[in-house]
Give the backbone structure.
Amino acid sequence: GQQLNQSPQSMFIQEGEDVSMNCTSSSIFNTWLWYKQDPGEGPVLLIALYKAGELTSNGRLTAQFGITRKDSFLNISASIPSDVGIYFCAGQKAGTASKLTFGTGTRLQVTL
Amino acid sequence: EAGVAQSPRYKIIEKRQSVAFWCNPISGHATLYWYQQILGQGPKLLIQFQNNGVVDDSQLPKDRFSAERLKGVDSTLKIQPAKLEDSAVYLCASSSPGADTQYFGPGTRLTVL
């Protein structure tokens, strides 16, 4: 099955730095979602995007729905140690009864 | 509000054995999903239920995997017989009808030796 491509695959940053990651697809999605997964837990929804070009924030997190509807971006400002985890994008197509296609994940590690 | 419950949390079996996982969704959530997450990858949908009916099982390896949700509440996923490549975390999720947000359980980590 298809998986969306995420980059970078992993990143090691210092506390306080800003983080950017992206997700690309060869096909169009009508909804983009960003999840965070901590070790030993299931993914937790961070942000949902419903319209091309939409920019949505959730605290220090900002995500954008790409104009082409084939990509999405997530930014984390002023990273803190609890931001450590794996970030997944997920796309949803119209008429697919809420079926999600997940990305390959970006592993974020933060140093003090 | 109680979250999605899954059991067991960990299971180790030998290849060709059988295994079953249980999921209890959030109360009132009609839609239930089973995902397989192989190490280093994102979750992959195996099967989606709406109440007790199957909506999508296109990626379920039906020769060895089966799932049921007989009363439209909790669900079981079975693998018989297991193969080495079935080693993964099996995640259950649930959502309200028409809602985008899927709530995930903690998963069952399966190791096949």
Remarks:
- Residues 77 and 92 of chain A are 26 Å apart (CA to CA).
- Chain A has a mean pLDDT of 92.
- The interface with chain B takes residues 1, 3-4, 31, 33, 40-45, 48, 88, 90, 92, 96-105 of chain A (CB under 8 Å).
